[in-house]
Design brief:
- The chain has about 350 residues and is of the alpha/beta class.
- The protein contains 15 helices and 5 strands.
- A 5-stranded parallel β-sheet has the order 2-3-4-1-5, with helices on both faces.
- Helix 3 links the parallel strand 3 and strand 4 (about 95-100).
- The protein is elongated.
Length: about 350
């Protein structure tokens, strides 16, 4: 949206990179007011029908350009936006309609916006099937760009590691920008190294489950036990029962994926895992011994019971010592099952 171009009758502004979405909206408001337009008329799509927004767009303006701003526009269903699609066939020249959303418009609305105005998208491709590689590439390049903007550099594999460690927060560009800033400051004029990432980027609990799952499926007993030890010490500990629950959810996905003819759609439908977690379960299902998924689900159910009532949890100088031992024994059994033992 260049300030040199005339204002368009409509903008659809969306994307996961909320900071840039908000910045685009602020700039549009400032431009309209700077050019002598009226203060924005604001609507929430969840509170008003599109017919009311259309009426505001068609109202006469006596103070320059009218800006009609609608938040959460993607909450309208396809049928709900028909009045606006009709309006955009012949929009009022003195009105600028700004539709702000998290997601993209419906196909018909998209066609109308592109014909009459402009689509402004900020952030990675939508989180849906087929976009996994494109999303991963976007987040990798985003981390690299943020680190570079602050005077350092980071390799692609290390940028991927930052995103992976961030887990669910890795889909939040603001969170990743903060992580990139920490790394750039720590590295100074030198490139960001593995030691910087390991020291500064805290692993999200859900991401830890994936990392631990990778080690279990790979049969790397030493690395798995080292990770369990890391999870148990310091100020950023994770309760053993939390680890058990995350592993149980992941191995349920593996068990479903190991069923004859099962697809990623089946994993998502039957387990609630979506996107990357479901994709990871399918990948792991191909790497472990036949039937290992179901066996591990049963073992993890026993592990939950052990963490709650087993006498082993009373061992050690504290209950936490016993719980960690019970968890370590469970992970040892999971590794054996994945290897087919």
């Amino acid at each position: 949206m260049s300030t040199k171009d005339p204002l368009k009758p409509v903008y659809w502004i969306h994307g996961e990179e909320r900071a840039k979405v908000d910045l685009a909206v602020r700039r549009l408001i400032a431009r309209v007011e700077g050019e002598g337009g009226m203060p924005a008329e604001r609507f929430e799509a969840s509170e008003v029908p599109a017919t009311e927004v259309r009426a505001a767009c068609e109202a006469l303006s006596f103070g320059g350009t009218r800006l009609v701003l609608v938040r959460r526009a993607d909450q309208w269903k396809a049928a709900d936006v028909e009045p606006l699609i009709e309006y955009l066939d012949d929009p009022v020249p003195t009105t600028c309609l700004a539709l702000v959303a998290d997601g993209a418009p419906t196909p018909r609305m998209l066609k109308a916006v592109e014909a009459a105005g402009q689509l402004l998208a900020y952030g990675p491709p939508p989180d849906k099937r087929g976009n996994e590689k494109a999303r991963a590439k976007w987040f990798r390049e985003y981390v690299q760009g943020e680190v570079k903007r602050r005077g350092s550099t980071i390799s692609g594999p290390l940028a991927d590691e930052v995103v992976r460690r961030a887990g669910r927060a890795g889909s939040d560009s603001g969170h990743l920008a903060n992580e990139a800033a920490k790394l750039a400051v720590a590295a100074g004029d030198a490139p960001v190294g593995k030691e910087h990432v390991e020291a500064l980027v805290v692993v999200d609990p859900e991401a830890r489950a994936f990392l631990l799952g990778d080690l279990i499926v790979a049969g790397d007993s030493r690395a798995a036990q080292d990770m369990l030890a890391d999870l148990a010490r310091g100020s950023d500990t994770t309760d053993p029962v939390v680890i058990q629950r995350m592993l149980a959810r992941h191995f349920r996905g593996i068990a479903v994926a190991q069923a004859p003819g099962a697809t990623q759609d089946d994993v998502e439908r039957l387990t609630g895992l979506k996107g990357y977690p479901a994709q990871k379960a399918v990948e792991h299902a191909r790497q472990v011994a036949p039937g290992a998924g179901e066996w591990c689900v049963a073992r993890l159910a026993d592990l939950e019971l052990d963490l709650r009532v087993s006498a082993l949890t009373d061992l050690g100088s504290s209950r936490g010592d016993g719980e960690r031992m019970v968890l370590e024994l469970g992970v040892r059994d999971l590794i054996g099952a994945c290897r087919g033992r």
